[in-house]
Design goal:
By secondary structure, the protein is an alpha/beta fold. The protein has a domain of 208 residues: Rossmann fold. It is 39% helix and 13% strand. It contains 12 helices and 7 strands. It has a 7-stranded mixed sheet, sandwiched between helices. It is globular. The N and C termini lie far apart (45 Å). The relative contact order is 0.15.
Length: 309
């Protein structure tokens, strides 16, 4: 259980608990019936809420209410990205920093899809132990790849059967926030080098340097630290972040950058802006490589962000 007991690994349990709560909402944006199994299996999170009625304060709770709804919205939006890519003909998916996500099980994949899950060996071992207990069966061919995304992970992905001649739907959900700037540059460069025409990429970024002291004292950060033992502000990578969207655009990708609040407006539910907002610096980026497969159609949302290049 050590792989999910501390540090960034513990945030995978936080997201799993949020997905579990979201799953049981009557207006759920996404459903993950396996999420609560992970939460209950880890001693560190066994007592956390997994249903809305277990959340103290309900929607007003900064942790399981507002932040939890953010994770629910993020899950839905990134699910849609992957399914759009699959509908456009992409049959190879790579989840960079897959954590405890179960997209290989819960999404309705077309025949022939292969989902690669990259994460540390400790996280993948814990995840597989829980999955084996549930008897869950994936809806796509699933391949796990144990690797540290701060270093060289491409060789391990190749050994798992990755086909660099086929278009790929890449996803980095809740990953780049924790990677040093140089590791982010290397990861984006590797994705570009491995992407056949028609590939897509979605990732989340956060300009931590833009957050004031007042934002760092926001209720969601305090609640995560005091109630869960997760100091998010200490886990986030510091310093100036690379402009990965510009790097992709310079490489010929079509890129759009969105605020999560655009998708709150699109779906009619999700977090909304507030003073000293811990979510204000978060952005979701969608990119598509030129090519014959597709187009996967980048998200069209009210007030959509920039399209460089």
């Amino acid at each position: 259980m050590d792989g999910v007991a501390a540090g960034v690994g513990r945030t995978a349990l936080l997201v799993a608990a949020a997905r579990a709560v979201e799953t049981h909402r009557p207006d759920a944006l996404a459903r993950d019936p396996l999420a609560e199994q992970f939460v209950r299996a880890a001693p560190a999170s066994a007592g956390w809420p997994v249903r809305p009625e277990q959340v103290p304060g309900g929607a007003a709770d900064p942790l399981w209410g507002r932040l939890g709804r953010y994770f629910g919205l993020r899950t839905r939006v990134l699910d849609d990205h992957l399914l759009r890519s699959a509908a456009a003909g992409v049959r190879q998916v790579v989840l960079l920093g897959a954590g405890l996500d179960t997209r290989a099980f819960r999404l309705d994949w077309p025949v022939g899809c292969v989902v690669h899950e990259i994460d540390t060996e400790q996280v993948l071992t814990f995840k597989q132990t829980v999955l084996d207990r549930t008897g869950a069966r994936p809806s796509a061919a699933r391949r796990t790849v144990a690797a540290d995304l701060r270093g060289d992970w491409t060789g391990a992905l190749a050994r798992a059967g990755f086909d660099r001649t086929a278009p790929t739907a890449w996803l980095a959900e809740g990953l780049l926030l924790y990677l040093p700037a140089d590791a982010e540059r290397r990861l984006i460069a590797a994705v570009q080098a491995l992407s056949a025409p028609g590939s897509t990429l979605a990732y989340e970024l956060k300009e931590v340097a833009a957050e004031s002291a007042a934002i760092r004292a926001a209720p969601v950060y305090v609640a995560a630290r005091e109630r869960l033992g997760i100091d998010l502000t200490a886990l986030f990578a510091t310093g100036r972040r690379p402009d990965s969207a510009a790097a992709l655009a310079a490489g010929g990708w079509t890129v759009t950058v969105h605020s999560p609040y655009e998708f709150t407006a699109l779906h009619g539910r999700g977090p909304r802006p507030e003073p000293d907002d811990a979510l204000a610096a978060n952005r979701w980026v969608f990119a598509e490589a030129a090519g014959a497969v597709g187009p996967a159609e980048l998200p069209a949302v009210p007030g959509s962000g920039s399209r460089p290049g």
